[in-house]
Design goal:
Blueprint lengths: L2 H21 L22 H18 L6 H12 L4 H8 L3 H22 L4 H6 L2
Length: 130
């Protein structure tokens, strides 16, 4: 599997768990009985989900630790971790659109390889390991 695909799989799980953790802080949602249920959604225990979110961020930052990759690290923080919209992320990173797109691919490739090496991928194995 390509490292960019590995990154996409891990990032999808990261976003889902981050939303779930934010939503599960004691707030009660109202139900719409007219809308069909989404069905069963597997979620890990809260502590393990927090571990995955923290490991995703830590491993990603570690993979981009080279001093010359300071801009790529900023891209990772702004776009992938904080979820800034594409145009806004380009402005926040402070580079041209072409450079942003090139760095985007490099970040996914470098971090995806690191996720594979450190055991964050596949997420199913990460959550089954104790």
């Amino acid at each position: 599997m390509k490292s960019t695909e590995i990154f996409d799989a891990c990032h999808g799980r990261y976003r889902g768990l981050r939303e779930w953790l934010a939503d599960s802080t004691g707030s009660v949602r109202s139900l719409d009985f007219e809308k069909p249920s989404a069905g069963y959604l597997w979620r890990p225990d809260r502590a393990r989900a927090c571990d995955y979110v923290a490991d995703f961020e830590r491993i990603g930052r570690h993979a981009l630790r080279r001093p010359e990759w300071k801009g790529r690290l900023k891209l990772f923080n702004v776009y992938f971790l904080r979820g800034a919209e594409y145009r806004r992320a380009i402005r926040l990173v402070g580079v041209a659109e072409g450079t942003f797109d090139y760095w985007y691919r490099e970040v996914k490739r470098a971090i995806g390889a690191e996720f594979s090496r450190t055991g964050l991928y596949p997420p199913s194995r990460y959550f089954n390991a104790r």
